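#data-curation
PF: Archiving a pair of folding outputs for the training set. Convention for this channel: one message per protein, sequence first, structure tokens after, nothing in between. First:
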Amino acid sequence: MLIVLAGFTAIGGLVALLAGAYGLRQARRIRDAGLRAWALVKPVPPGADRPLLQYETADGRVMEITSPVPLEAGTLIELSYDPDDPRDVVLLGRESAGSDRWFVAAGAAVLTLGLALIVAGL
């Protein structure tokens, strides 16, 4: 029974580690290869906790998305967006990779714990 629980622990750690690594890779890809634009920070809509970002893509589309981080309304911020999906953005100078790094670290720790429990149970 301990081996089964240890296996599930290891698998959960691996999933968290891979999710964090994928998030970090996506943010780096968009930051380095994405298209840049200036976005206007609009006020927080009723019932939301973060403001909207409004920007124009290279092909002239006006996009309006929820900001990934809290920002002050009325300011301009530079972002990089994925040309294939302009709703996928990275705010330049405010890259928020903390949660992705946390997933990698926590996933590695839980994976290590799971593997140690598997070895101890054998």
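PF: Second:
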Amino acid sequence: MVDFRKYRTEDRDWVISANLRHYRNVEGFDRSFKDVIISALDHLEQQVMDGRSHFIIADDKGCRVGCIFFSPEDEVSGRVRLFFLTEAYRGHGVGKRMLNQVIEHACQKEFETIRVSTFEQHRDACGLYAATGFKGKVGEPMEAFGRVTRQVDFEYDLSPQSITLGQ
């Protein structure tokens, strides 16, 4: 059974190495991706105690298997970053549970929008976001981390207007 707990600073090395291993070996990203991960974690760790951020580590009997970070971008919008799940745990509802915890947290903290960006070749991630109710927009081809790809920017609307209209 996979449990979720709060991110701790001793999780930092695992977050970096797990992301690097996957994105280099499976996705073919180049060395520049390491700097992006470290920079993102540096930024996120400054927000760990702000009361509006929500950083989760997925843990299976003491073994880290995933992470997701949610932090404010402004007063009404937040962003998901570094959402990662070890391949063996994908397709079993763990990622969906992680994402749903972020959505619940965002609702409780009265965010109106959740944003997340990924790349079109990450079909499982794109599928999860779409199935959860995120609306995506595919960008123009670009070079990122040594590959030509398209970024997909997703948004989840939590505004009072959308909730009222959706009922």
